[in-house]
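Hi Q.,

Before the meeting this afternoon, I wanted you to have the S-adenosylmethionine prediction in hand. No need to reply - just skim if you have a minute. The sequence and ligand are here:
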Amino acid sequence: MQGVDGQNERVGGRSVAAPVARLDKGPRLLVDTIHTIKQERVLTSPKIEPHPHRLHWDTRYRDAYQERLPSSLLLRWLRRLRPGHALDVACGAGRNTLPLAEQGWQVLGVDISPVGLHIAQRVARQRSLSVDLVAVDLTTWALPLARFDLICVFRFLDRGLCPLLASALRPGGTLIYETFTVAQRAYEGGPRSEALLLKSGELPTLFPMLEQLEYDEGIVEEDGRSRALAGFVGRRREE
Ligand SMILES: C[S@@+](CC[C@H](N)C(=O)[O-])C[C@H]1O[C@@H](n2cnc3c(N)ncnc32)[C@H](O)[C@@H]1O
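Predicted structure with the ligand bound:
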C-alpha cells in the first residue's frame, strides 16, 4: 500500500511513515489496508478493532447519506494553489476529494468507513476521476512524512493527529482545516462531545508549527441549517 510503507518515525508520540508514495491513476479503493493497519497496531496499541466510529459511520452512509456541496473554503483556496499531491483526511463519501481530483490534484482520501469510501469510488467512476481511497483508522494510521502539497480536513477532529498532519506536509505545503466549534451545541445536528468540538480560537493553536494564512469562525447557513464552524489555513514554512 502506498503511503504507509517505509520506515516509521515518531512525531507527537505517534508513529509516522516515510514512504515512497506513488498515487496511480483510477479510483482505487484499498479497504484491505484497514486489516494491515490493525495487525501493525496489535504490537503498539491496546485498541481493539473495529473502531466503534467505523460501525457508526458505515450505518450513517448506508442509511442516511445525502450528497452535499464541497466546502466553499476549499474551493476558494483551490483557485490560488497549484495542483500537486493532496490528502483528504476523514474524506467520507468524497465531498471534497472529488473536486480536488477534478481540479487536477492527485488525491488520496482516507476514512474509517468503507461504505463512505465506496460511495466516493462510485461517483469518481461516474465522473471518470482518478482518486486513491484507503480505509484507515486515523487514531492509529502512520502518516507519511513531508509527502503532501495540500492536506484537507473537514468536519473531523482528532487533536493528537494535528502535529502529524503538519509533518506530513511538504515544506511550502498548505493545510486547510474546517470543523465544528462548541457553538454548534446551540444548533441541530453535528457532534456534541468535547472531543469533537473546537473551543473558540483553539484551531490555530493546534498548528503552532504552521504559518497562519487565514482563520475565521462563525455561524454559516448550509442546506437550511446553521453550522458553527472554525476554518484555518496554514502553510508549512520552506526549509
Ligand atoms: C462529518 S464526516 C466528514 C466527512 C467529510 N470530511 C466531509 O466533510 O464531508 C466525519 C468523517 O470522519 C470519519 N472518521 C471518524 N472517525 C474516524 C477515524 N478514527 N479514522 C478515520 N476516519 C474517521 C467518518 O467515517 C466520517 O466519514
